[in-house]
User: Which sequence fits this backbone?
């Protein structure tokens, strides 16, 4: 089995690579242009089944050799998407459509596991939120994720696309915070808080800290990707991938340190995320396993 991971040197891509090398005997090609990812994230991998390609997704000429594509490459931050608008459209929408067009041109339809986001729900009306919640994007980034999903749904009425959208809630875990990434202020709050705690810096809470998040460990995202990839029938649908519980940012800060301060609220971010994960549990047989407080306890005791 030959598979492709786009964005392999990023936070989630590199963790997915580790998971798949451990779990399967697949041959894995990973592509990354190292725009927000870094080689350090994959430099520990020493396995002949893995080939790294330093290039942009846009230069991929064929997908024919792959049976599965895990598409993670993106500019994945909400706040920069308000400023570098066209770059985000190109990276998040056009590059994905480039891959879709290749599949259509080559008449080859591998299982396409698309990394989507809970941001497509905006601040949802229904809590916990099921996949039937209407799209209500609050940022260009969220809107690009929404558009990608819609393109797949629409194009699948004409072409035999074979895809799964995984709507990640709030991922955390190893490598989530890249100090060299110019957008790191907007990365996962768990990673930022732990970094600041370890460097004796005040934790910075945006707004009043009462915004609530459904935090999900990256190992659980990797298992969701794997199960979505091996599911024996066509799915062509979306799944929520969260823990199915919610915690405020202030509560999270207090779990880590009492040395914190408040900074201005950011627009474009949801007041609450809280996943109903019963669809992924029922259909994919997926279940999150890592408890946030266990992870935090381990990290702050190191
Ligand atoms: N981390 C989150 O909070 C979160 C939440 C929901 C969804 N997602 C989605 O999950 C996916 C992975 O996110 P992440 O947190 O690992 O981000 P990340 O920035 O760590 O990883 C993205 C990777 O894609 C690479 N990349 C960007 N443009 C590329 C291109 N044109 N060609 C090749 N590589 C390219 C980057 O260099 C980086 O290594 C993204 O699609 C993101 O939108 C992330």
Assistant:
């Amino acid at each position: 089995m030959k598979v492709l991971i786009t964005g392999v040197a990023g936070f989630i891509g590199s963790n997915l690579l580790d998971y798949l090398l451990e779990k399967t005997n697949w041959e894995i090609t990973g592509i990354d242009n190292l725009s927000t990812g870094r080689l350090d994230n994959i430099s520990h991998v020493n396995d002949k089944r893995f080939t790294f390609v330093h290039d942009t997704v846009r230069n991929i000429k064929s997908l024919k050799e792959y049976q599965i594509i895990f598409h993670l490459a993106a500019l994945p931050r909400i706040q920069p998407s308000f400023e570098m608008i066209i770059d985000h459209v190109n990276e998040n929408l056009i590059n994905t459509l480039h891959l879709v067009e290749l599949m259509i041109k080559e008449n080859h339809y591998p299982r396409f596991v698309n990394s989507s986001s809970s941001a497509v729900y905006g601040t949802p009306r229904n809590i916990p939120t099921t996949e039937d919640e209407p799209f209500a994007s609050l940022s260009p980034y969220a809107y690009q994720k929404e558009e990608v999903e819609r393109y797949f749904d629409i194009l699948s009425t004409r072409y035999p696309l074979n895809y799964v959208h995984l709507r990640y809630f709030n991922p955390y875990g190893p490598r989530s915070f890249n100090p060299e990434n110019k957008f790191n202020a907007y990365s996962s709050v768990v990673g930022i808080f732990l970094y600041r705690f370890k460097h004796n810096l005040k934790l910075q809470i945006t707004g009043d800290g009462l915004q609530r998040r459904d935090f999900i460990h990256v190992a659980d995202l990797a298992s969701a990707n794997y199960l979505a990839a091996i599911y024996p029938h066509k799915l062509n649908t979306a799944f929520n991938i969260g823990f199915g519980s919610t915690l405020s940012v202030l509560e999270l800060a207090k779990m880590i340190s009492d040395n914190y301060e408040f900074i201005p609220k950011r627009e474009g971010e949801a007041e609450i995320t809280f996943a109903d994960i019963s669809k992924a549990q029922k259909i994919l047989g997926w279940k999150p396993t890592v408890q946030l407080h266990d992870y935090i306890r381990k990290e702050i005791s190191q």
